[in-house]
Amino acid sequence: MEITTYIDNKMLAPSITQISPSSLILFNICPNQYKKMYILREKTETEKGIAAYNGNAIHETIQRFYMREKFDIKSLFEDWEYILKKTVHNSGLTVSQKQFNTILKDGVKTLQAFYDVQKERSLLVKPIDVELELRTLYKGIILTSRIDLIIKNKKENIEVIDFKTNWKAKTQNEVDSDLQGLMCAWNYKQFSGKDPYKVVFHFVKTKERVVMNELKYEILFRAIDKLLTAEKNNRFPATPGNCDFCQYKKSCVAYTKKRKFYCKFT
Ligand code: SF4
What we know:
Blueprint (H helix, E strand, L loop, with lengths): L17 E2 L1 H9 L1 H9 L11 H16 L6 H19 L5 H24 L8 E10 L2 E12 L5 E7 L7 H5 L2 H14 L5 E6 L4 E4 L5 H17 L19 H13 L1
Parallel strand pairs: 1-3, 4-5
Antiparallel strand pairs: 2-3, 3-4, 5-6
Helix pairs in contact: 1-2, 1-7, 3-4, 3-5, 4-5, 7-8
Bound molecules: iron/sulfur cluster.
């Protein structure tokens, strides 16, 4: 099956907003954080440690692996070492040999786990596509998504797979309403004419695969419509709750006030 990226050039006016799964997820977490990142494009000086690059490096290694003719584990580990060195070099961070070896070892363990699961499920075969970027239109808005892997399983059914490097797998309920999974499935459907047989979240570190039970597209479009209404009314309230990883917390009044409130009673 051939899938090509589609953009209707007529619709590419400057006013068109693009929505990606990560921007939509961020809006759901905190509209104010979304506004700072995607509308105001505020920069912060948050320093990233090498761990922040780790997930991308694992993804890149898996992508490279699936572009090979043969799927041998030795090449997988060699690619990992090469990509990790390149990532460290490009990040400009100073990483000691000891730190590098620890990350290298952890990645080998993760990739071994990934390989074992793919082998057990007979998914070490030439894929339909890898890291496929798809764009579709909804109410004149471009919906962008990237699919890690599209593959035919041994029963010749299409699986859309998203690799996750979290230490803990998501629950079935979380997966069933996952905006990224829904947007990937929706975009895939627009190109192929039908839903993928399976949308799988493969948690490589824990060896768990959680399959979306049902593709509830209404959840996706409800979230998109909410974002579009917020943009129309320019209403992006700060919603403290998941502030720990927010790069804007130092300058966020809602966060600072909340901290003071907690301090008063602790
Ligand atoms: S610190 Fe919390 S409330 Fe403030 S923008 Fe970030 S996530 Fe939102």
